[in-house]
Amino acid sequence: MIELKNISKTVASGSDELKILDDVSVRFGEGQFVAVTGASGSGKSTLLGLIAGLDAPTSGTIDVDGDEITSISEDRLAHIRSRKIGFIFQSFHLIPSLTAIENIMIPMEIVGNLNARDRAAMLLDSVDLSNRGHHYPHELSGGEQQRVAIARAFANSPKILLADEPTGNLDSKNGAHIFDLMTSLHHQNNVTLVMVTHDPALAAKAQRQIVMKDGRVESDESRRA
């Protein structure tokens, strides 16, 4: 489903070079729920961004559902992202001038889905926000905004869901609700879920946990279902 081979990522830091990822090779299976943990600066979010095609590695290759995304055009990459990958950010990333339902419709409108509003309404209902579709992001709580973001991530029925600290800006109660909602939709839709988190309690609920340290995979352990 997702395979990274010998991935390195180096960026300029003044007159020096900073290696964020150092020869990382890892594979994520179809329908698997994987938590990626590690200290700040260990390369977790960079890894997620590379899988999403939001950034490119300095070296190595990334295969996403049969597409090798490190050597394709930006147009082809955008096509893959819009149809195969859903991304949930820590800071929600909703468009403030659009209502909740309009935010969810955007990915579907990009690919020309003529039933975008009907599916957006269904997704709002799946995250228990059917009565909040006409509200703007500033009229929603943090937990509600993240629920809209989850619904948007599932808009085009992606095979892969990437979540970067999805509960990081929420209190424990809302964080637990968001986690349960996200994992429930993951099971219902059989998507591959890769979640970056600092929360050991959430990571412990994943089928597999990868620990990053200094840009490398320090450990990779699977748990019994």
How would you describe this protein?
With 225 residues, this protein is an alpha/beta fold. It has a single domain, classed as P-loop containing nucleotide triphosphate hydrolases (Rossmann fold), CATH 3.40.50.300. 33% of the residues lie in helices and 29% in strands. The protein has 7 helices and 10 strands. The strands form 2 sheets. Strands 6-7-8-3-9-10 form a 6-stranded mixed sheet. Strands 2-1-4-5 form a 4-stranded antiparallel sheet, with helices on one face. The longest helix has 18 residues. It is globular, with a radius of gyration of 17 Å. The chain starts with a strand and ends with a strand. The mean pLDDT is 93.
Shape: globular
Percentage of residues in DSSP E strands = 25-35%
Estimate the helix proportion, in percent. 25-40%
Q: Sheet bearing the most strands, described?
A: 6 strands, mixed
Q: Pairing-aware structural class of the strands and helices?
A: alpha/beta
Total helix count?
7
Q: Could you name the CATH homologous superfamily?
A: P-loop containing nucleotide triphosphate hydrolases
Terminal Cα separation, in Å?
A: 19 Å
Write down the Rg: 17 Å
SSE order, as H and E? EEEHEEHEHHHEHEHEE
CATH class: Alpha Beta
Number of self-contained structural domains: 1
CATH architectural designation:
3-Layer(aba) Sandwich
